[in-house]
Amino acid sequence: MRNAILRIFPAVLLALVAGGPARALERVVFGTDWLAEAEHGGYYEAIAAGIYARHGIAVDLRQGGPQISQSQLLAAGRLDFAIVSNSFLPLNIRNQGIPLVAVAAFFQKDPTVLIAHRGASYRDLAGLKGKPIMIGGDTRVGWWLFLKSKFGYTDAQIRPYTFNLAPFLTNPKAIQQGYLTSEPFLIEQAGGDPQVFLLADAGYASYGSIIETSAKLVHDNPELVRRFVDASIEGWYAYLYRDPAPANALIKKDNPEETDALLAYARATMKSHGIVDSGDAKTLGVGAMTDARWRAFFQVMAKQGLYPATLDYRQAYTLRFVDHGVGLKAQR
Questions:
Q1: pLDDT computed for residue 22 by the predictor
Q2: What is this structure's pTM?
Q3: Which of 202, 221, 238 corresponds to the end of one domain?
């Protein structure tokens, strides 16, 4: 018995030395930009599959929703990381002098769309110029400016959008805003035949699902920021290209209105349209951002008068934690 113990002990000691002492997970509070959905699949996968834990992080995920400003909660120190939905928000925050910074962009294509009825026979976004379009109030100072700049849309086209599909379904000439991964599916389920125009395919350069944190955290604990971003990247590769079931189970637990059919549709749509893994992400890795793309977006919006031309837009983001090819080898 003694000899057996002595034979085992070196192996146990070696394992302890190699693995190091078990360390407590570092807790972070992470706010999403809406109720749980497939568009958050990579983050939920990183929780469900233990990817954050493997990177030494315990994530307390807080859902977003109507009337919840995750940027305000982040600025107030109640969140460590938060998702913001588009490139306007980091620039708006920078313009207000609030010390928050974007550290990764998980949607290379913003999923924003305009939706018409197929029977109306519109061919492209240019063909919607002059037509009544239902959009939300915040959109007036968001991607609507891109449509005005590129296609000559005017504010006279705007009709109120209440996030209710009934006005669209009952009017064959109706046009409304939506998200590529949700409204088209819901319209089809209600018996409609939507024609969908993805703004990103027409040159709208906004990122989506952008991770923001405080400039203080970036300065004081860059290693934590790196681990959170790396784990999120791995989570997105796992959700898109491996088994999404663990993430989907957590999503449905947080938001019981999500169905298996909608989750499957949204995931398949993100893959087929390259929402997450396209463009720069193909060579730099999921979560990629570039100075050139931020500059192009800023310049278009500055010409529309949304930002002063003198704004130092580079302070709105950092490339320090992305573009390192994390997860690329495993994916290929």
A1: 55
A2: 0.90
A3: 202
